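Session log. Operator J.P. requested a structure for one protein chain; no other inputs attached. Running the standard single-chain path with token output.
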Amino acid sequence: MKGQVSIEYLIIVGIVIFVSVPLFYYATRSSGENIRLNQADDTVKSITNAADLVYSSGLGSKDTVWVNIPSGVTGVSVANKTITMNLTIFGRISEYLSFSKANLKAAPGFIGNLTNKGNFRVAVETFRDSDGVVKVLLGGYCGDSICSSNENAVSCSSDCNSYCGDLICDSNEDCDCSDCYGEQDGCASGNVCDSQGSGSCVSTVQIQCGDGICTGLPGDNCNTCSSDCPIPSGYSCCPYDVQLNYYILWNAASCPEVPPSVSNCGDYCVWFGSYNNGVCRQNQAQCNNNGEVYQSGGDDYCIGGPTGDFCCCIP
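Structure written below.
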């Protein structure tokens, strides 16, 4: 009798083991797949979040973000404002996307790095592309053939042809370079960068058309005084601030639709129409509730996440 009980007990134990092992294997495999899924989703979102941060901080901003690339990545693409990662998960290929407020551009080698399992450090920085548009460069480095806002001909001659002393005030130069003499960059209204490249601003009272000095101010800019402000090949003469009639040389075949002086929702509202200011709201309804006017064109300057993506202009 005891022998029969022992046999029955062993049979029951065997059945339990037979059922439990596959279940344990499935649970372990499923857990591992979910971890890879989360890693892929976190990777694309971390990169676009960092891109939004530097984009909202303006030209010349730079940051880095560490991402954990899962195994099984079959491809990565960067197009316009979207980054996409394809991952083999649960026996099929799934697509993970994340969207940025900024136009994105991948440096050479960036795509390949994101297909290799392991931790990867991504450099994220703003720069002005050859088309004149401010974009966010992903994985940039000296030698990538892209002159970013943190590079110049001195720090990275392989990427940048411009240099301080070439008589052209480039996007990566300011009052610390004599090329920017007469530019208003960082100076108060009525002042411009001094001729020594000292970083100081001087009054423009004595500066006028015909003195060989281009200030960019009314009556003495590339639009009104070609003798002082010639337009080099490949550049355009564009309004920096329409109200002040202040023009700059723009390194592109055509001028940007919105002046580069516009850097936030409030600037856009004042430039776009007869508004006093602007503010970023959570949704369009909040614009109406606060007596404001929603202007979709200003949304690109609102990088507040779900709580501040809509540009509302204050009459």
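Operator note: The chain has four helices and 14 strands.
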